[in-house]
Write a structure and sequence with these properties.
Elements lengths: L3 H5 L2 E8 L5 H14 L4 E5 L7 H5 L7 E3 L10 H15 L3 E5 L6 H5 L11 E11 H6 L6 H7 L3 E5 L9 H11 L5 E3 L18 H7 L12 E7 L6 H10 L4 E8 L2 E8 L2 E6 L11 E7 L3
Parallel strand pairs: 1-4, 1-5, 2-3, 2-4, 5-6, 6-7
Antiparallel strand pairs: 8-12, 9-10, 9-12, 10-11
The structure holds zinc ion (ZN).
Length: 300
């Protein structure tokens, strides 16, 4: 039951955005662990692009404070559902923080607009878009137009992730490349999306975040680049090398799934040309085993 005080409580909202495979789910995992350590309740809305529920399994979430929205982007098709879901989470879970993990193809500004809509605008205290950037993708110059640039330009905060995968001397160039797209947002470097959660809500001395909330909302329909999601099954006992070859041949932007190889249960993660199998530190739901989702650019 909600107390009067919690009904008046205003809570911060974080949109976790970033291109396919940049490390969004890893960041959300850290934030949830941190919230738990500090006794704070975080509610999560996850908008996965491939509709399997892999992110939910990775977050080990199925409780009253987790909702997965699928079948479209929360930036357009599911924007009303997002507002309804956040209001429902407020009433059901009374969170101290809400996190929206957008799909890798969603546009964060159009997600953010929803926080300024009734009734959730009454209890959302402030909202920040953090855009996670894969330093390796940036260094290799892969897929930096279109969606990537739109996401970076909407950031309140940039998290340059996977710094362990690029040479230290490349950093000034990477920063300059981001600054061309987004000159102002604070930039934080990270490995495995490890960041001090206190940094995620930077001060707003000019009141920019506060002001934009009260400006009239002008929702324009937008166009997405075309991405295609495909799922394929992987027989139990498949040789790891054969599986990696098979995924590489599809040249995906992103691949992920839980499989059982001849060496045991693994998570398959692919980001551009980097396709890896790793051991699991938990048992994924049985219905997800042997299914891999691949995201590619649509032919247009
Ligand atoms: Zn959209």
């Amino acid at each position: 039951m909600l107390t009067r005080m919690s009904q008046q409580k205003r809570v911060p909202a974080l949109v976790v955005s970033g291109f396919l495979g940049s490390g969004k789910t890893t960041l959300v995992r850290h934030l949830l662990a941190d919230a738990q350590r500090r006794g704070r309740r975080a509610a999560v809305v996850s908008n996965e692009f491939g509709e399997l529920g892999i992110d939910g399994a990775l977050l080990n979430r199925a409780g009253e404070d987790y909702v997965e929205l699928s079948g479209g982007c929360v930036c357009c098709r599911l924007s009303d559902e997002l507002v309804e879901t956040l209001q429902m989470l407020r009433e059901r879970a009374d969170p101290d923080l809400v996190i929206i993990e957008t799909s890798g193809v969603a546009l964060p500004f159009d997600v953010q607009l929803n926080f300024w809509r009734e009734p959730i605008s009454e209890w959302i205290e402030t909202d920040v878009v953090v855009v996670v950037v894969d330093a390796e993708q940036l260094a290799e110059g892969r897929d930096l137009d279109g969606t990537f640039a739109q996401q970076v330009s909407s950031a309140d905060l940039l998290l340059l992730n996977k710094l362990d995968r690029v040479a230290a001397q490349a950093l000034p160039d990477l920063e300059a490349a981001l600054r061309k797209i987004e000159p102002d947002a604070p930039l934080i470097g990270a490995i495995h999306a490890q960041v001090d959660p206190a940094l995620l809500f930077p001060p707003d001395p000019g009141g920019v975040r506060e002001r934009r909330r009260s400006e009239p909302i002008d929702i324009q329909p937008h166009h997405h680049e075309e991405f295609i999601t495909e799922e394929f099954s992987v027989a139990e006992g498949t040789e790891p090398e054969a599986l990696l070859e098979r995924v590489r041949a599809l040249a995906p932007l992103r691949a992920k799934g839980f499989v059982v190889t001849s060496e045991g249960p693994r998570i398959l993660q692919g980001v551009g040309p980097r396709i890896e199998l790793s051991k699991l530190d938990f048992a994924p739901p049985a219905e997800l085993l042997g299914r891999v989702v691949v995201i590619r650019r649509g032919d247009s």
